[in-house]
Amino acid sequence: MQDISGKKSVFFAFSAPTFIWLTLFFVVPLGIIWLYSFGENVTITKIETTWTLDNYRRILEPEILQLIGRSFWLAFVSTVICLFVGFPMALVIATASFKAKPWLLLLIMLPFWTNLLIRTYALLNILGTRGRLNDVLRWLYERAEQFQAMLGLERLNLLGDGFTPLTLLGTPAGVIYGIVYVSLPFTILPIYSALERMDNSLLEASMDLGAGQLQTARNILIPLAMSGIVTAAIITFIPALGQFLTPDLLGRGQVDMIANVIERQFKKANDWPFGSAISLTLLYATFILLALRSFYDAARSKREGRM
After folding, report:
1. Which of 15, 100, 246, 288 is in the most buried spot, having the most CB atoms within 10 Å?
2. For residue range 28-45, what is the model confidence (pLDDT) as tens digits?
């Protein structure tokens, strides 16, 4: 059998289509956006690259900084919630039986089979003032009123003057709910991958030596799954930071994130240079997070090499 390991032309032939595709549809458009970020609007349709930094200076305006801060905060809270919800779910899947595991993974993957727009509109039907969530709460309120009447406690007015629908649309809580719903599978899968490779005998040994469940989870389980947790946090936080559709529909124009401002710069304000500058600022933040992840992996590998 002929050895092709030394023939660079073979590997170039296989990598050339991917390289050309990435260059034409990723590097070139990103380069154009980078040039736009240093440009100015000459006419409605023409942008001239003057190498000005005014577009980046505008990001330091209080309104833009407030939007960026809100975006980071909503993305951070959503990521924390996803981690708290996703870790137990990933643990259940990782420790499930051989027959049950594929079905549990299928349940996690099912949302990817439906378009994000359709799923977000479904949340509108659930979280609206007359949505399904308020229908359930109203039904529970009515049952509680009936129970209160049975006990003869009407005069105490324990339930208030009437049912008040829960308002989530147009609030940060509604946007966080939507981001968590969209991002949760991206959190579960990396943690599951880390837990799947874990040696369960370590957990059994910890329990046998007298450690409680919380001690075992804190000292054994979480450190072993830390690589998956860090990966899950990054790939959850970065898309959450750039969310556009969820805050646009669930925020009802009251809870904008930075991606909504970028969209308006390109489609309504016709200020492409400023929109490009904000977009690249988010990209720089993404690179910083990925660099921190690389430093963490390098430090972790160095510690493991010393052990």
Report:
1. 246
2. 999 999 999 999 988 877
